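Researcher: Good morning. I'm working through a list of sequences from a screen, and I'd like to move beyond sequence-only analysis. For each chain I'm collecting a predicted structure so we can compare shapes side by side. This is the next one on the list. No need for commentary yet; just the structure.
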Amino acid sequence: MPELPEVETTRRGIAPHLERAQVTEMIVRERRLRWPIPPELPDAVVGRALLGLERRAKYLLFGFEHGTLLVHLGMTGTLRVLTEPFPAEKHDHVDIVLDNGRRLRFRDPRRFGAMLWHSGPPDTHPLLAALGPEPLSEAFNTDHLAQALARRQAAIKQVIMDNHVVVGVGNIYASESLFRARVDPRRNAAGLSGEEIARLVAAIRETLTDAIRAGGTTLRDFVDSDGRSGYFLLQCFVYGRTGEPCRVCGTPIQQLRQGQRATFFCPTCQH
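Model: Good morning. Structure tokens for this chain:
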């Protein structure tokens, strides 16, 4: 599933080919995504110039003067820029054709993605209004996380995966961040010390930054490619390494289930 670093990699890969271009046509082959594509969406964007492409959590925000196109990749969605009108394949649901000779193609085999229109400020959309801060922004700091953890009796891994606390810390990045912070994922969130919280904030920032940087070398692959080669897996310390030796101390990595998700940790390095 595309997580925040993959979505940011997508944004950086396609943005230079789209910004300031005018939409000349929007071809919708399949409306049945997670939420149906609004019938009026093509009329909202055709003839309009795309002013910029931003990201909020895992949503891509295509900014127009009169509103915003919100795109979510769901579990299997991809976006790629085409330089020619290559024939659409089975799961190529939407093309946005631009006056610069490019077209943006949305592919989503499982159709859990979304394309929605919002005429107001993006942060007032119901899907965005209640989200926590971006993990790489100044708003995500030790004071914010300490306040969010206070009186929370849930396991710390579950809390940092809550988008109301901080956005974009998916399952892989939660396990990796907790390892870097040397915090056991089973710990009661409210029981973390100030020093541990500070380490965790730094570890989340570092983990996501490294993941985005790892994707940067494949940005060109979002043009005329299958749209998948820009996704990557962080060189993990613990995730997916059950039974393998810890890269720091050599102790076998352990796995458990938390909230129906697999959690990986080192019982020696994490306390």
